[in-house]
Design goal:
Helix 4 packs across helix 9. It is built from nine helices and 15 strands. The chain is of the alpha/beta class and 419 residues long.
Length: 419
């Protein structure tokens, strides 16, 4: 009895201690699990946003404090990329989301059960890649989006493909199916985009008698367009049809979005040597063919500064070996057309010595559109200025370019005959 009574008494004395310990353990567990629950329920933190590139190719990066669960899809009217996120707290500067390059507008915000980022394109585009990546410093994650200008047909094909992949995609795995890769286009007609140089606040060169380059290029481009349309075999577009300013990369974007087979940029420059006159045909190259070509390219590439824009070459991180291979093939076509064009112009208008030249013109840098820049003549030469204002001379020059386009188009189609 005594021992039993003593034992029971000891257990009874221990119960309050054990009870208190259990309570503490349960409370600690509750706090831990509730903390985890609150962390899981807490909004995702969007801590930064950057865009780099131009109107033909862009990279968009959004950073987060932890890994986001991302789904994305395309919408038309206008062309948009929609990225769905978990509920997110956005700590992003207004300056960072200011429209630039291929992106016309950036919108983001809460959607009730989640959040959404919407990128509106400056016309149709393709999503080349969308990745969720861990940050290099080991802290947080980022979404990296690569976009490039595309045609309306390519965007519609991406939408149709999207419908076959359950209406949305996640990161890169399915992304390869949406808006990427060659898409056959059996109904495509040979397409020419004509680019009247300068415009708006950028008047270009000024002649001895006050002729303004932007007016000469628009008048000539309009006449050339009409002659090409009259052939009845081509689709013809102009980068501008009125006196408006266009960035150089926007001119390239327009050519790419029309799936152009040829871009012809029209100019009429001035030069300090008054005796030099005649037309010149330029193609793009990393190294200029001569100092005069380099000087001209430098002047033309400054065009964007007329609108107070800072020009940066931000495409390096979104180029790859495939683009380089495409560019080489395109350069071959550009050189071929330039040679044909010089031959046709030589029969109707005066050319300078060594009329086929090259330099690093930004407007000719579309990797997949054969492109030439035609200097019709020099406004600094009185005879050239008079010719550029002559309807008869413009008609002859436009017809020569039309003949060159016919030869190039038929050669590219494999028919070997003019049109």
């Amino acid at each position: 009895m005594g021992l039993a009574g003593t034992a029971n008494k000891g257990r009874c004395a221990a119960w309050p201690i054990l009870h208190a310990a259990c309570v503490l353990v349960l409370m600690a567990a509750f706090l831990v699990f509730s903390g985890v629950s609150r962390a899981a329920d807490a909004p995702l933190g969007a801590t930064g946003f950057k865009m780099a590139g131009d109107a033909t190719k862009m990279r968009i990066v959004m950073t987060f404090d932890r890994e986001p669960d991302v789904k994305w899809f395309l919408l038309r009217g206008p062309s948009r990329l929609v990225v769905d996120l978990p509920r997110t707290r956005f700590a992003i500067g207004a300056k960072d989301v200011k429209a630039r390059g291929l992106v016309r507008a950036v919108r983001y915000g809460d959607q009730g059960e989640g959040s959404r980022l919407i990128l509106t394109g400056k016309g149709p585009f393709s999503v080349d890649k969308l990745d969720v990546l861990k940050n290099d410093n080991g802290s947080g994650y980022r979404i990296a989006i690569d976009m490039s200008a595309a045609s309306a047909r390519e965007f519609d094909a991406a939408l149709a493909n999207q419908a076959l992949t359950t209406g949305s995609t996640v990161s890169t795995d399915k992304g390869g199916r949406v808006g990427t890769g060659p898409i056959s286009n059996p109904g495509h007609r040979f397409t020419v985009v004509i680019d009247p140089g300068h415009g708006g606040v950028d008047g270009g060169a000024e002649g001895l008698n006050g002729t303004i380059e932007k007016n000469v290029t628009l008048a000539f481009a309009t006449e050339l367009r009409d002659k090409l349309v009259a052939v009845g075999k081509y689709d013809v577009f102009m980068t501008r049809e009125k006196d408006e300013f266009l960035r150089l990369d926007d001119r390239v974007r327009i050519a790419r979005q029309h799936e152009a087979d040829l871009l012809i940029s029209i100019h009429a420059d001035t030069i300090s040597v008054k005796g030099i006159r005649g037309a010149t045909v330029y193609t793009v190259s990393d190294k200029a063919s001569d100092p005069e070509a380099q000087a001209l390219a430098d002047r033309e590439n400054l065009s964007d500064q007329f609108a107070g824009m800072e020009i940066k070459d931000e495409n390096k991180e979104v180029t790859d070996i495939l683009i380089d291979l495409i560019r080489r093939e395109t350069h071959g076509f550009s050189m071929s057309f330039a040679h044909t064009l010089v031959g046709q112009l030589s029969t109707s208008v005066g050319l300078i010595n060594n009329p086929q030249r090259s330099a690093g013109f930004k407007v000719l840098k579309a990797p997949d559109v054969p492109s030439v820049l035609v200097e019709l003549g020099y406004l600094s030469n009185a005879k050239d200025e008079a010719q550029l204002l002559s309807a008869d001379w413009r008609g002859k020059a436009a017809q020569s370019i039309t003949n060159a386009v016919a030869l190039f188009a038929s050669a590219k189609a494999g028919t070997g005959t003019g049109g």
